[in-house]
Write a structure and sequence with these properties.
Length: about 40
């Protein structure tokens, strides 16, 4: 998967699910890692 596309998806998901600064960062890292698996 394209790196930029993966970053945009992870960022959008983190913005929707994250509950604050730290939560958003954690969600971003998890989603980015999961997308990297596929």
């Amino acid at each position: 998967m394209n790196g930029l596309f993966k970053t945009l998806i992870a960022g959008f998901t983190a913005k929707k699910l994250g509950g604050g600064c730290i939560g958003t960062i954690i969600v971003f890292i998890i989603v980015y890692w999961l997308l990297g698996k596929f």
